[in-house]
Amino acid sequence: MQHDQNSDRTPPVSRRGFLCGAGMTLALPWLESLPVRAESGKLISAANQPSSPPIRFGCVYFSNGVEPAHWWAKGSGSEMEFGPVLEPLRPFREELVVLDGLFNQQAADNPSAHLGRMPNLLSGAWVSLDQNDIRVGRTMDQVLADQIGRETAIPSLVLGVEPTELRLEDGLSMIYGSCISWTSDTRPATKEIYPSRAFDQIVGTGGSRQLDRTILDEVLEDATSLRNQIAQSDRTKLDEYLESIRDIENRIDRATREQRLEGWRPTLNSPNMPRPDEQLPQDVPNHMRLMLDMIVLAFQMDKTRIATCMLNNDLSQMNFGFLEGVQGSLHLDLTHNGRDEELEAMYLKTNQFHFQQFGYLLQRLSEIDEGGQTLLDNSLLIGCSNLFDGDKHQADRMPFVIAGRGGGSLETGRVLNYLDQQDDDRRACSLYLSLMDRMGVQLPRFGDSDRRLDRL
What we know:
Blueprint: E1 18-21, E2 24-27, E3 36-37, E4 43-44, E5 56-61, E6 73-74, E7 81-82, E8 96-102, H1 105-108, H2 140-148, E9 157-160, E10 168-169, E11 172-173, H3 175-178, H4 195-203, H5 215-227, H6 232-257, H7 284-301, E12 306-310, H8 331-335, H9 341-366, E13 379-384, E14 398-403, E15 414-417, H10 428-438
Parallel strand pairs: 5-12, 5-13, 8-15, 9-12
Antiparallel strand pairs: 1-2, 3-4, 6-7, 8-14, 10-11, 13-14
């Protein structure tokens, strides 16, 4: 009988390591010394596998622009200077590219001062003003998800803090104000605002089943066995990784036990129905940081390489009374302040708070080692808003900060100003083409641009 040569071949190798528990698996972080399991269960040297961690993309959005007098940066590297709005990012100045002067032409031209200038943030597309035809444009994060999302369990992670709203505002659907990620011209990506559900999606089976025991208890036996197969340096990393999951579980539990609610208050002071098992965090800062923790965890586990997070919706009703010196006004009122000095000062504080959250994400990612590089080194992250001066609804100049080195493909520690350039040379979509290139997705055109961003 003829011998089947294929029978001697090594089974296909999984690029990931997993801890296995009862009916579930937990993907591991990058461990240099971890032998890779083949489908047959045999161990194969990790030296045969690609050695470079993947590049991740993320966008952290805040609504209604910046306090214009104090949003600026100058200099380079360790000498970079910041205006008060960006001051929270000072510790990361050598990891940043601050961009000024980019814009989306279709947003600047849209007569709807808010809803016509927000959902196209990542697409540069025209926003339909027909309330019977919700239409924007497919966003660059979803283009990436189609191309590289197949390599991960979750094509893209779409997160937020405030819920998707269905009411009308000025004759247009507030879906426009609730979503920056669109899977097609007419369909926004489903946004998750519950940290516990995002957590289950990342570390569980992707369904909504209840976790009878903690994830760590389920996989403890396999983790103990794995520690004997890896180097001491990786044992420390594994222990820190498992402890970070425990910490997130504990923080979710603490958040759901709180009875206080910051921000928008519903017409009922208490639920008129049984309380569901999964609860939203009861204060804004904790909620935001939990959602950013989900991004860190998903990236670290390689469950996704693409994530967006809306810290607040457009026309946000979020109350920032938890900030010292900010009293009595909703976010929308602070940003539309008529140049009232007291309200301007509060507006600045909310800007600083938003960049503190972005800085928190950068700090978390910078602490995760991926074989001589940090997870931040292997990321491309945008911190941005759709408007510049929120009081003027200014859409012809958008505040952008890019963080991370894209695996060495991006030179950081720079300020790039495009305000004096021709309109064709300062398209936000040129930035997106440049970032998608670095993610391994090359397109001849995206949105309103067919050229890459100069000097990036």
